[in-house]
Amino acid sequence: MSAPEAPSVPTRRGFLGAGLRGALLFAAGAFTTLMGRHLRAERTVWQLDPYKCIACTNCATHCVLEQSAVKCVQFHPMCGYCKLCTGYFEPQPSGLNTGAENQVCPTGAIQRRALEDPYYEYRIDEPLCIGCGKCVVGCVLFGNGSFALQVRHDRCLNCNECAIAIVCPAQAFSRVPASQPYQLKTREHQA
Amino acid sequence: MNRSRPPAAVNRRGFLARAARRLGWVGLAGLVTARSRAGAPQTGGEPALRYNLDRFTKTDPKYLRFEEVGRVPSPRASLRRVTVGPSGHWYLAAGNHVCQLHPRTGPGWEVTLASTVRCVSPGPEGDLLVGVRDHLEAFDARGQRRSTWAAPGPKAWLTGVCATARDVFVADAASRVVLHYDRGGTLLGRIGTRGAGRTGGVFVVPSPYFDVHAGPGEELWVANPGRHRLESFGLEGTPKTSWGVASFDLAGFCGCCNPAHFVRLRDGRFITSEKGIPRIKVYSATGEFEGVVAGPEAFPEYLDNLNRGPVGLDVAVDEAGQVLVADTLAGAVRIFRERPSA
Ligand code: SF4
Ligand code: SF4
Ligand code: SF4
């Protein structure tokens, strides 16, 4: 029968070494858990809720980009295809034509095209749009509200802290799943 | 959505330039004397970027022909329509309900429907026709349901109804036609269908505001909001006359599509209601602008909240010739009386 081993005597160095190993193991575990969570959690992007937005003009002036990542978008299913579109024409235009003085848009970013009389189609030329929301006000005040501002994700840098979200007076900005990056308007909401 | 250019790079020079511009914006915003109520659109920013209606939102007092003399709160929330029956009873459509009340004796009966009530018309016997989105329901003078009419189509969006002793006319904003029924609910015809040589149909209805009124006489009046006109037809649908122009000036109808609602006084004059710039006006029996019942300053909150979109103010006329306005946001019927000097 062999004699049992004498119990090891705890030393200060051994105690510290074991503590360090434990801490390293814990940190590695926590890191792995966090990474797992991160990989599982869906990526999010910034978007604004068109039903909260009051078109204050901050979207045009506060984006970190030289030209804002926020643009006007046209929800065609909601559009009335009006001859006298209040998103396109200034109040009391001198004529229903494409003269710059008659247009609401300060950059001429809205294209107007005649369809079957008396209907007209309106499209946004996005590179020209500065996201000021002036047309949105005209459309929402009088018409169906088919013009709305949205963060365009082919431009947005997805900043950690969106510079517009900080100043938005309507708290319209939030992070949304990258798989559903737009907040569209609906006819049901209008009704 | 169109594809756009790639994002501009962020650099120090650009950042500083933007910071300087923003200081400029802040200064400008301080200078702009805009409306300051919470929720008001575009309260700051460069004037060129502001949608400016200021010059159309004040009424010259010389045009004010009526004055407000009272308010009656709606018994139910979400007031949408008001109409007056032959016995002087008011019928208020609010949410899913129609509430009968009398201005002197107070609330009467109430009926509840399965969905939002969109239009109401009393018949000459005190009976009531109530329109929800896609069909009509008929009630007798005590509020008992008598019948439910078939929906005119799967997409129907009924926005106006008017009953006479013989006929019922129903405005369907989805198909942009006025449906002509007999009192029993049999469809007799459609007014406003695309005729030969005409494109785009007769009625242009960009948003769900499309109102109809019959009488006096053998005459049907229909709002054609996308053409900014009121149009009359024979009861069988023959076009007769029309009047109205698109204009932000007081004499015209503003925005993309107005008038949203209208009614006639006993002497044949028209009371019209516009959305966008909320204003109630009076026109002669032949369509000449006479004056204002209530201007935008009577409904300030209607211009202030962009989240809601335009709200139409329904109008009715009582036996005394007073104009009743269904003020949705105030949750009350507001009563306007013609000024003696007018
Ligand atoms: S900052 Fe907010 S309220 Fe102003 S335009 Fe942008 S989303 Fe709308
Ligand atoms: S008015 Fe402003 S938001 Fe509208 S299209 Fe022009 S630049 Fe864009
Ligand atoms: S996240 Fe950055 S780039 Fe995108 S809209 Fe906001 S400020 Fe502009």
Summed up:
The complex is a heterodimer of chains A (191) and B (342). Chain A is α+β, with helices and mostly antiparallel strands.
Give descriptors for this structure.
heterodimer; A: 191 residues; alpha+beta; two-stranded antiparallel sheet; 5 helices; elongated; B: 342 residues; mainly beta; Neuraminidase; four-stranded antiparallel sheet; 37% strand; binds iron/sulfur cluster
Write up this protein:
The complex is a heterodimer of chains A (191) and B (342). In chain A, a hairpin with a 5-residue loop joins strand 3 and strand 4 (120-124). Helix content of chain A is 27%, strand content 16%. Chain A has one domain (44-190). Chain A has 191 residues and is α+β, with helices and mostly antiparallel strands. Chain A contains 5 helices and 6 strands. Chain A has helices at 12-40, 58-61, 134-142, 163-167, 187-190, and strands at 44-48, 70-74, 110-114, 120-124, 147-151, 173-177. Chain A has a two-stranded antiparallel sheet with strand order 1-6. A two-stranded antiparallel ribbon of chain A has the order 2-5. Chain B has 342 residues and is mostly beta strands. Chain B has one domain: 6 Propeller (Neuraminidase), CATH 2.120.10.30. Chain B is built from 1 helix and 24 strands. A 4-stranded antiparallel beta sheet of chain B has the order 1-24-23-22, with no helix packed on it. The longest helix of chain B is centred in the first third of the chain and has 20 residues, at 12-31. Chain B is globular and about 55 Å long. Residues 1-40 of chain B have low confidence and may be disordered. Chains A and B meet through helix 2 and helix 3 of A and helix 1 of B. The structure holds iron/sulfur cluster (3 copies). Residues 48, 53-56, 58-59, 133, 149, 164, 168-170, 172 of chain A line the site of one iron/sulfur cluster (SF4). Residues 46, 63-65, 69-70, 151, 156-159, 162-164 of chain A line the site of one iron/sulfur cluster.
